[in-house]
Write a sequence for this structure.
């Protein structure tokens, strides 16, 4: 088992999330915030190339082609989350019903949020709506951590641009990198300082970056080496004293 109490700031794990989760102790995580595969690849029309603008990336990564079942998350998520913990999972229209089917009877509350992207990819063919919204399912039990602010700040709706500019990693470029503004909004509401945030589908460590910005601790797992290495480099700015232990597939700040 990993020793959660020995994490100073962050622990980054390279490997399969379902295997690594087995090494996380029971009731040790305050907030699970993650972005698993959406299984939208089968609906993709492929990349669109233009002479007058950058290519529109409609292709989703290869891992999205692998069928994903929310049921695979249930056993370990319910085991590692604290009684006062919260779970937030980014998803899409084609899977939200499956999440509800799996998790609704297990938690006291099952809700969802909508992230509205103010600058979504344009619909060049003008044949349907712009894909401007993503869904986030949320689960918790009575007595959960909840930092309620003002009524007008607690809607289950958040509006921000997609991740771009200096925040967007260029090499490697992750196809589903989430903006810090969305992640920090959730972390502020659903956790407290020094809490442990877990993302088993870390990508380029956006959740980790947001967590460390807000003085939380972070555990992340990533199976693709290029994204894992990018995560290490990205979070190095928080490693002020070069206090890093590197044991093969585990980086502990």
């Amino acid at each position: 088992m990993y020793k959660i109490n020995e994490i100073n700031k962050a622990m980054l794990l390279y490997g399969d999330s379902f295997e690594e989760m087995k090494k996380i102790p029971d009731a040790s995580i305050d907030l699970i915030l993650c972005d698993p595969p959406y299984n939208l690849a089968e609906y993709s029309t492929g990349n669109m190339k233009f002479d007058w603008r950058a290519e529109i990336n409609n292709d989703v990564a290869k891992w999205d082609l692998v069928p994903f079942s929310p049921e695979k998350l249930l056993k370990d998520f319910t085991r590692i989350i604290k009684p006062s913990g919260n779970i937030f999972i980014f998803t899409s229209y084609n899977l939200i019903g499956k999440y509800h089917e799996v998790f609704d009877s297990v938690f006291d509350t099952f809700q969802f949020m909508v992230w509205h992207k103010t600058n979504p990819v344009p619909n060049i063919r003008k044949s349907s709506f712009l894909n401007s919204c993503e869904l986030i399912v949320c689960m918790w039990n009575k007595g959960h951590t909840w930092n309620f602010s003002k009524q007008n700040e607690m809607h289950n709706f958040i509006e921000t641009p997609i991740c771009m500019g200096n925040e967007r990693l260029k090499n490697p470029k992750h196809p589903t990198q989430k903006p810090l503004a969305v992640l920090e909004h959730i972390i502020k509401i659903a956790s407290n300082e020094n809490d442990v945030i877990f993302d088993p589908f870390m990508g380029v460590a956006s959740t980790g970056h947001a967590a460390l910005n807000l003085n939380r601790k972070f555990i992340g797992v990533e199976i693709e080496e290029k994204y894992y290495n990018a995560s290490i480099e990205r979070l190095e700015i928080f490693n002020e004293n070069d206090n890093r232990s590197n044991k093969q597939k585990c980086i502990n700040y």
